[in-house]
Amino acid sequence: MKRSIPTKRTTIYDLAELAGTSASAVSAVLNGNWKKRRISSQLAEKITRLAEEQGYALNMQASVLRRERSKIIGMIVPKYDNRYFGSIVEQFEAMARERGLFPIITCTRRDPALEIEAARAMLSYQVDCLIATGATDPDRIADICSAAGVRAVNLDLPGSRVPSVISDNFGGALELTRRVLANCEREFGEKAPLLFVGGRGTDHNTAERVRGFRAAHAEAGVAVDETLVLTCGYAPEKAENAMKAMAEKVDALPRGMFVNSTISLEGVMRWIRRSGHYADRMPHLGCFDWDPFVAMLGDHIEMVRQDVPKMLDAVFEIIDSGASDLKVIQIPPIVEQTG
To answer: What is any Pfam family matched here (predicted)?
Structure first.
């Protein structure tokens, strides 16, 4: 009878040999102390990459015994110049301090390389937990945190390695689309499809909002042509250019629109003002985002306000309870008329 031999577990000594350095240097990198040891960022990057490739998982219990809690909590965010993310940052800081934690926050501009760089910098300061908000690759960040023995939670965009807290994007988009369709039918006397503008079709939130957008149309018995879904990105310039390009191909644009964020709404409104396309009557708009100043645009717009307090309550409940199951918690957003 052949005896099965268990696969040898990778140790810090194996990683040290692969990296061409000492075990203590490997330990410092994985524990987030490499800057204090004056280890180069190139070596830290190499060790972290090797740890990921070798499937190395830091012994959490031993890690806790070796170091005291720093009581530092980190967060990365994709934008500051947006009321939604600004609100997340402000309330996160307050809630962290209420718990005796010191918050560190940095903006990564939706740049995957900056996200990884920021996560590793946070670990070098020995954060006890890292909140990845709107990260383009949350699983990569979760893996880096796991290798260093640090907890991570995803916020806004979900991942598959750690718990996630997000808005109910499908439900919010479904209700918002219903309202804009009803507003258009009431004013213009006909059922007609809306235009979807903004966001990236590859990210979870936009995909779910498009799904809710389509479901509301199907519910109303209105067909949606693929050309009416302009997932052109979030930048105002991209939304403006997408509107311009579409207007050059058709005689008239739809009388109603679903705009994926206030960032995209800026580009949409800029194009409307400059083009004069809706000079006779403003279209009905729905925006999956919220800003009180949008009320100045008139009463032809409804907005979705993501419930930031409840989202952050859920994040800190995960942190406080030590929960580690890979669930995605969806918080219903609030749909409200601005006018």
So the answer is: LacI
Asked whether the beta carbons of 213 and 196 are under 8 A apart, the reply is yes
Residues 6 or more apart from 269 whose CB is under 8 A from it?
Answer: 297
Q: Which two tokens stand for residue 247?
A: 């207007």
Angstrom distance (rounded) from CA 330 to CA 36: 39
Distance CA 159, CA 139 (A): 6
Q: What is the mean pLDDT of the chain?
A: 89
Which fold, 68-162?
A: Rossmann fold (3.40.50)
Strand, coil or helix: 275: helix
**CATH architecture of residue range(s) 169-308:** 3-Layer(aba) Sandwich (3.40)
pLDDT of residue 147: 84
CB neighbours of residue 277 within 10 Å: 15
Whole-model pTM: value is: 0.80
- Closest CA relative to residue 229, chosen from 264, 255, 201, 205: 201
Domains 9-65 and 169-308 share a fold: no
